[in-house]
Write a structure and sequence with these properties.
By secondary structure, the chain is an alpha/beta fold. The protein has a 7-stranded mixed sheet, sandwiched between helices.
Length: about 260
């Protein structure tokens, strides 16, 4: 199986899609980073930094005495960040090492679930932590990704068709839809201390301008989803209509946040 990232940065509306992702998920991520104790003077790495909102937050948090490294396979959305203590780097965590024993914190969100080489990526991140440094990994588990139980049965059928098509696409692209549920065990087997994991999910409704993550994600994948043969054009258009309907409500994926500390 080869890995082809489902959401690349080249799409013309990708900045808007990432804005919606950040609106929904940044508060949860920031809560976890603050809980770890990220503070003045820390050296941090944001792997697969995407649109850069968390890298920017980290740069502000660690202050002039700290440093933040933001990496990605495509840095076009990171290069405009103007923070003197932030470095942007074109980098592939599955094949390229980071500086050994150099970081107080390494964070990645919605990255490893896309990578068949996720174990190698995790090992590289751990090797780059200072003794006592923290690893925070956040990934989805799609088991909660369901419409409201009170919605129309026909709408449930539309949702199920889209989930089936997405599941087929995920398998083809190497995207693990249950990766979040595996995080605790993966970090524990790395030999980290203080391993813990918790999950967070939100209810969403259609037609939300600043939270339209699912609508934009589905729109971006239209051709690939229809090509899967699991959803036709008519059903796909019904899905888009639901995602723009304020009365349609669903539960998001479960964002599992797992952390561990490199032994001192």
């Amino acid at each position: 199986m080869t890995s082809t990232y489902v959401f690349d940065n080249a799409w013309q509306q990708e900045r808007r899609r990432l804005d919606a992702l950040e609106t929904i998920w940044d508060p949860w991520t920031i809560r976890n980073l603050a809980g770890i104790g990220v503070s003045e003077g820390w050296r941090c790495a944001e792997i697969g930094a995407g649109g850069g909102s968390i890298a920017r937050w980290l740069a502000t948090r660690v202050g002039p005495a700290g440093r933040v490294l933001a990496t990605d396979l495509d840095t076009r959305l990171l290069d405009s960040i103007n923070e003197p203590n932030l470095e942007t780097r074109l980098h592939d965590i599955t094949s390229e090492d980071l500086e050994l024993a150099s970081f107080d914190l390494i964070h990645a969100r919605l990255l490893l679930e896309h990578l068949p080489e996720h174990r190698a990526a995790l090992r590289r991140m751990c090797a780059a932590l200072k003794p006592g440094g923290w690893l925070l990994i956040e990934e989805f588990d799609h088991s909660t990704f369901l419409p409201d139980t009170g919605c129309d049965p026909e709408d449930v059928g539309v949702w199920q068709a889209w989930l089936t098509a997405f599941g087929t696409l995920a398998q083809e692209r190497g995207l693990d839809l249950t990766y979040g549920s595996r995080l605790f065990g993966l970090l524990d087997r790395l030999g980290l201390d203080e391993v813990a994991a918790e999950g967070y999910t939100v209810s969403e409704r259609g037609g939300s301008e600043d939270r339209g993550l699912l609508f934009l994600s589905v729109l971006k994948l239209r051709d690939a989803l229809v090509a899967s043969g699991r959803i036709d054009e008519i059903t796909f258009d019904r899905l888009l209509a639901l995602l723009q309907d304020r009365s349609f409500v669903w539960t998001s994926q479960l964002m599992v946040s797992a952390r561990g500390q490199r032994p001192i």
